[in-house]
Write a structure and sequence with these properties.
28% helix; agmatine deiminase activity; four-stranded mixed beta sheet; protein-arginine deiminase activity; L-arginine/glycine Amidinotransferase, Chain A; alpha/beta; Peptidyl-Arg-deiminase_porph; globular; 17 strands; 350 residues; hydrolase
Length: 350
């Protein structure tokens, strides 16, 4: 029988979500008191529905977190359990340095792609080794950890769970990642490693302040095999207007495997947020996380937050929408989806 790999969609059943905890050795050092409560809120929301894998370089802090979160689950009678793994880390973007899981003939394979901090923009050596630490702790059970000699971040790809990937050419074709591979070579490699039949490439779309070279999870997301939500900018005076309008047109041109167009839902455009130096930050409602029976939605303390909750509830009527204020996260140029990585059902069984 021919082997068939599948990259599950995010809405597929999960066993756990992974978080790489911020510590004083990361760029979060100056705002740890602001950002740790965000991580704690994400952690507690996840534990309402599934297990949580947390790693941290500072062992004492990790032990405190394990005690606090375990007490939280017991106090509230929650199903999720905490798995704490001491491991060095340069930063906290688990979406990009975390493992990507595929299914092959019913077996889970944990893929460990190379990570170079979005094209050598920042230190990355500890993050690149993190998945081995977690695997060596037995976190993935009997699932195999398979190294892949290719630089790929989880935030750069969206899967419909049926063989289609959505991505951006700005990211996957960046010469700072895999310079020896052109578009056709990348398509062939991802077809073999992830089991993809086709890739939908977006050539437009960006967010100011984004370090990732236009990760797809900040711009457009699969919500079902036939449904894509996306960032839309209605303000013609905004610097994003032209690029996002061009991206919207590309999405309208995309076709499902049967030739029909995708259902499209535009997400609200939040008011601009700036850092202390006046640099615009990449706040986006597209950076939500789908977990079992819920969607964790980043909000930013702006007037459009309520509308975003309403829109997401319309997209996911059978899931609870849980807004989490992620304004502190965007000061390091990421948001909720960027700091999390889901692990499919059957992998983590504490």
């Amino acid at each position: 029988m021919t082997s068939r790999r599948v990259l599950p969609a995010e809405w597929a059943p999960q066993s756990a979500v992974m978080l790489t905890w911020p510590h004083p050795g990361t760029d979060w050092a100056d705002i740890l008191t602001e950002v740790e409560p965000v991580f704690l809120e994400i952690a507690k929301a996840v534990l309402r529905f599934e297990h949580l894998v947390i790693s941290c370089e500072h062992v004492a802090r990790l032990q405190e977190l394990e005690r606090e979160l375990t007490a939280y689950t017991r106090r509230h009678g929650l199903p999720g359990r905490v798995l704490a793994v001491p491991a060095p880390a340069n930063d906290t973007w688990a979406r990009d340095h975390g493992p990507i899981t595929v299914l092959e003939n019913g077996e889970d394979i944990i893929l460990d792609f190379r990570f170079n901090a979005w094209g050598n923009k920042f230190p990355w050596e500890k993050d690149n080794a993190l998945n081995e630490h977690i695997a060596n702790a037995g976190t993935f059970g009997r699932s195999q950890l398979q190294a892949v000699d290719f630089i790929l971040e989880g935030g750069s790809i969206e899967s419909d769970g049926q063989g289609t990937i959505l991505t951006t050419s700005e990211c996957l074709l960046a010469p700072s990642r895999n310079p020896s591979l052109d578009r056709s070579a990348i398509e062939q490699l991802l077809g073999e490693v992830l089991g993809t039949d086709r890739i939908l490439w977006l050539n437009h779309g960006y967010l100011a302040g984004d370090d990732t070279d236009s990760h797809i999870d900040t711009l457009a997301r699969f919500c079902a095999p036939d449904h894509i939500s996306y960032v839309a900018c209605p303000d013609v005076a905004d610097e994003h207007y032209s690029a996002l309008a061009a991206m919207e047109e590309e999405l309208r041109e995309f076709r499902q495997p049967d030739g029909s167009p995708y259902r499209l839902t535009a997400l609200p455009w939040p008011d601009a947020i700036y850092d202390e130096e006046g640099e615009r930050l990449p706040a986006t409602y597209a950076n939500f996380l789908i977990i079992d029976d819920a969607v964790l939605l980043p909000v930013y303390g702006v007037p459009q937050d309520g509308q975003a909750v309403t829109v997401l509830q319309g997209i996911f009527p059978d899931r609870e929408i849980i807004p989490i204020n992620c304004r502190p996260l965007v000061y390091q140029h990421g948001s909720l989806h960027c700091v999390t990585m889901q692990i499919p059902a059957g992998v983590v069984n504490p």
